[in-house]
Amino acid sequence: MLPYTRAMEAEDIRECTQNADRPAWHGVLELARGQPARFALEAAGPGLRHLCWPGHQALVAGQPRPDQAPATQEADPDPAFELLHAFERSGLSALRRVEGPWALLHWDQEAGELLLAVDRLAREPLFHARSAHGWVFGSDADRLAALHGWTADAEWLARRTVGSALPPDQTPYREITRLAPGCHIRLRGDGNAHPGMHGGWRLEKRERRAPVLVAGEFLERLKS
Known about the structure:
By secondary structure, the chain is α+β, with helices and mostly antiparallel strands. 22% of the residues lie in helices and 32% in strands. Strands 3-4-7-8-12-13 form a six-stranded antiparallel beta sheet, covered by helices on one side.
């Protein structure tokens, strides 16, 4: 077996944590005892929609395709608004019906809750971790690790080298978790986290058709 070099290690980490074609963003949900949670987001790059309205912030990455028309009378051509309209109407259940590659972040200041969610294939990566001051999250695990001084896990690298199957939520950093396909997590201002699954493959219901020939007719035709 070839020796595992630092260059190979760096390549493995990049392959599993980021994509150079995607814009990078990250944020923090700071928690302080007796104080409201403080939310901060830094996002840059094409294809990101950072939306703010009183008491709320949202970030939509990718190209979501909700299968329902937006709540407004005039069709809104922006898929980010369509996704948010669907989420406002139906909550997490709306995410099951959103096609395409997407990641969603939604901060509700009054509820003190941050929602992170990805599509059923997790084509837009989203990572989160618990830090000394609260929650951190973003689209690039390497960036999060560099900001907080976390280093790659030797056990993960060894398993990757020999081709072992790795859980979809595992990353090269012990502290950082990747949202698995079709999953979401609600990070609370009280420090609690509530993971869940909203996505999955939908099987189309097909009408059961009666056979062209019943058994008796089939046997009669064989005799004739």
